Amino acid sequence: MTGEPTQDGESLPRWYVIQCKGGESFRASEHLDNQGYEVFHPVLEVQKRRRGKLAWVSEPLFPHYLFIRLDRMASNWRPIRSTRGVLRLVSFGNEPVFVQDALVETLRDRISADSRRDRANVYYRQGDIVEITDGPFRALQAVFEAQKGEERAIVLLNLLQQTQRLEVPVGALRKHPS
């Protein structure tokens, strides 16, 4: 499970897993990067409600974990364990666990594609059933039609047997559990 030697006896750089202290994976990633290590900290951009408004937030794909690329022979492993935010290098016995390069590349590709797609889309999609959570139409269900800027949305509300277009704050909507 260690860096595999090449035919001339040198080892190849491999990806290893670092376990971070609770809530400190961003700090660990930053400090390792500042020390010159190649780090991959997979994060997703997600929309979350913050004070009633939707905001883009970075969240780790694997909370408490990140990947670091090291060479068994050439890399200096000592500073890693004393880096702020790092708890330990994940090991089985005394051997650090490496991760196949293909897995890390697949994660990078997927996260990159998901990030571009998610940023292009809004939190709600046209046709989603939503519930209005604030204002005079509170507790009524509507159909999400479109986003209007960052703060407003247009929904279709069925009132008195007719569909009405209504503009509401995005923060006053919640996806209806299907």
UniProtKB/TrEMBL annotation:
This is Transcription antitermination protein RfaH. It comes from the Bacteria. Keywords: DNA-binding, Transcription, Transcription antitermination, Transcription regulation. It holds the Pfam family NusG. It comes from Salinicola acroporae. HAMAP family: RfaH (MF_00951). Enhances distal genes transcription elongation in a specialized subset of operons that encode extracytoplasmic components. SUPFAM superfamilies: N-utilization substance G protein NusG, N-terminal domain, Translation proteins SH3-like domain.
